[in-house]
Amino acid sequence: MQRRTFLKGTIATSTLAIVVSAGMLSPRTVLAAWPKSAFEAKTVEDALNSLLGNAQTTPSADIKIKAPDIAENGAVVPVTITTSITGIESISIVAMKNGNPLAANFIMTNNTKGFISTRIKMGKTSDVVAIVKAGGKSHAARKNIKVTIGGCGG
């Protein structure tokens, strides 16, 4: 190992340890903006009202959902959302018939491409709705996914 690399690593580790011990970096700070009430909501309307301020969305052909037509295991349903909408603020995924319908919410930064890929749990066959918030408006697209084995306690 080179001396310079070793010293850089030691200094970085020491600085991080000081910041953490001083309480300047904590999970509480990172999770402060987590929309707990939206994820705990039992209805789609309550989740969207809590997350976006209202449940009104406009259908958009500029949002594409890539997901299997039939998910053999609802515990791990791969979902990819792409959009050409500019000025994206967030991308959310809602599984309409889940006990807690909000499956995911991604806050996007400026100049971020409209792309996310994740896995969600689905309790039963239902529509999956992708909601893209941009310019203060909410745009949506939906896809029906048939679930053969439920992933939410089913």
Overview of this structure, please?
The N and C termini lie far apart (53 Å). The radius of gyration is 19 Å and the shape is globular. Strands 1, 3, 5, 6, 8 and 9 form a six-stranded mixed β-sheet that branches. The protein has a three-stranded antiparallel β-sheet with strand order 2-4-7, with no helix packed on it. With 154 residues, it is α+β, with helices and mostly antiparallel strands. The longest helix is centred in the N-terminal third of the chain and has 19 residues. 24% of the residues lie in helices and 36% in strands. The protein has two domains: 32 residues, no CATH class; 114 residues, Immunoglobulin-like (Sandwich), CATH 2.60.40. It has four helices and nine strands; from the N terminus they run ααααβββββββββ. Strand 8 and strand 9 form a beta hairpin. 24% of the residues are buried.
Give a brief rundown of this model.
The chain is an alpha+beta fold. The chain folds into two domains: 1-32, no CATH class; 34-147, SoxY domain (Immunoglobulin-like), CATH 2.60.40.2470. It is built from four helices and nine strands, in the order ααααβββββββββ.
